[in-house]
Each structure stands twice: as C-alpha cells, then as structure tokens.
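Deliverable D5.2: sample structural annotation.
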Amino acid sequence: MKALAPGTVIFHRHRGYGVITAVNLLTGWISARFGNESRTLDLNLSTDEVQFADGEAILFRRAPPDRMPHARLMAMVRALHQAGYQKLYLYSWPKASGLHWRWHLFTGPRDWMQRSWREGWYGSGADYNGNPVMGWGDTPGASTEELIHALAKFDPQGLAQALGRDEDHTAWFASVCDALLPGYMYSLDMQRPGGGPLTEMPPVPVIPVRATLPPYAGPDITWPPGWAGLWSKVHVMPAPRINLTGRPEVPEQTD
C-alpha cells in the first residue's frame, strides 16, 4: 500500500478529492480538507471507504493493535534461530513505573546481566504506543520476514554475531513461543521479597500483548538457561561505554 501521511491526496465518494492533514495509524482516524471547506473532516479508515487519488482503496485493520512489540519480536527471534542465528537473545523487563515493558536484543555471549548494547536493538512499549516500529528501519505492522530483512540491512555486522549454536536456549525459546504466541509475552523480572535473595525460581511472569486478552492460564514458563545462578548473585548493570570525547554524557531518563 502507498504511504499514508499528511499531504496525501485522497478521494471520498461523497466529498470528492481532498488532502489529508493529520493521520493516527493507531486508531485508524484521519483528518482531511475537501475543496474550499475551511474546516477539516474526521474520517475512519475502516468504515468511511476512503481511497487514494488514483482509486486504490485504503484498507485499515479493524483488530486492535498490540500494545507492546514483544510478541512480534519473539516470532522474529524464533525464525532467526531456525535459520542458524541461535546466539540471538531477547531480554524483556518492566520499566520502573510498571506501566510498560522494555525489550533488548543482544548477540554473542549469553550473559544476561552484562549483555552488550547496540544502537537500535532495544526499546520500550511506551515508545511503541506512539510510534509502532522497532527502530531499525522497519515499518508499522511489518511481518516477521520484513522485520528480519530490515534488521539485516540496518546492522549486518551485529546480526552476523548471532550466527552459531546455542541448542539449549533455542529449545527453551521455541517451547516458550509455542506456549505464548501470538497473544502473550514473557517478562524476565526477578522480584526479591523484602530486598533479600530469592531461594526458589518462580514461574516466569507472562503478560498479554493486547488489552482484550484474558490473563495467561497456560503452563508455567521456566527461566532461560543460564539464569539458575543469578538468583543469589548481586546484579551489576552493564558497564558504561568508554567516553573518548571529553564531554560528560547526559544520563538516560527513566520513569
């Protein structure tokens, strides 16, 4: 489908030709001005039969969008595992506010706490709500294959580091995808009661990716391989990047 943005010329069977002034792809509503009218008209792309100027229909998905991208990322990681990129890992955890969940893709050594960071390989559900893309040149609603091609084009060197075998993690991840997709995602959130160390490994928290879905009622999800020894250790955040500019870096804001 053609790009849909302010300035796009459209046709409406009752109003004729007009120009879009505002677009909200999360809700499917647009504002457009027709002819000499001074006021804009709000139209719904699902019901108002809006067309492009050349007559091509503008179709909008009626189903509500995912409120977080994690399930789409899980499907992409599973496909890459099947293609031999088994050293690719998806870490997801809640933000401090508890309203959204962060996500981070990393490659190479399977070190969950000291994982490497690459620009464009991490994000937040809060950002996704206003701009439903992952951040590596993908488009809203891109399929699994399209996400993979966009990531390979965006950072081929980074994706090449995921080539290799990690059979136990790949088997764990495939079983999790079979149990959760397409409606649920996992959160690797280790809650410590009273600030003390955990003595047991509770089931992995599972969250629906759409508000209309009921709470997860399937089998318990176990923790990924390599997490057993993390429950009694003191967690250390990844080391900061080396700053060679001489200027202090502004810390990232969190909510």
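Annotation notes: Residues 69-232 form one domain. The chain has five helices and ten strands.
The annotation will be released with the project's public dataset once the embargo ends.
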